[in-house]
Amino acid sequence: MKVIENLKYTKDHEWLRVEGNEGYVGVTDFAQSELGDIVFIEVETVGETITKEDTFGTIEAVKTVSDMFMPVTGEVLEFNAALESNPELINKDPYGDGWIVKIKISNPEEINELLSSAKYEELTKH
User: Fold this and answer.
1) Which spans in the chain are helix H?
2) 8-109 belongs to CATH 2.40.50.100
3) In this structure, are residues 100 and 79 in contact, taking their beta carbons and an 8 Å threshold?
4) Which residues touch 14 (CB under 8 Å, ≥6 apart)?
5) Could you say which of 3, 14, 59, 111 has the lowest number of CB atoms within 10 Å?
6) Which pTM was predicted?
7) pLDDT for 25-36, tens place per residue?
8) pLDDT tens digits, 94-115
């Protein structure tokens, strides 16, 4: 399982890459491996402000459908359009081309409540 050091993580297996007052959100390598082959991503929240830990979309794999939860409160600015025709990018490159949404972070202090890469690795070992 791959964990990237400069990202922040949630207990629900989402990651956040902060770039100034914006961020990119995706699901972790652990999550994509647990889900299996991803076949569809649904995000209908572009333009909406989603509260931390609320659902911003769903991820559908061959064997299950799961909600995706916002790591911090923010406005969904963009959905990764590449996932419409290639949802398997999440399986191939969950921390890069497989990002799911770009957000404008509303409350930067919430970032401190997220897990570091080391804490996230501990969580997934149990």
Assistant:
1) 29-35, 82-85, 89-92, 117-124
2) yes
3) yes
4) 25, 26, 27, 28, 31, 68, 69, 70, 71
5) 111
6) 0.96
7) 999 999 999 999
8) 999 999 999 999 999 999 999 9
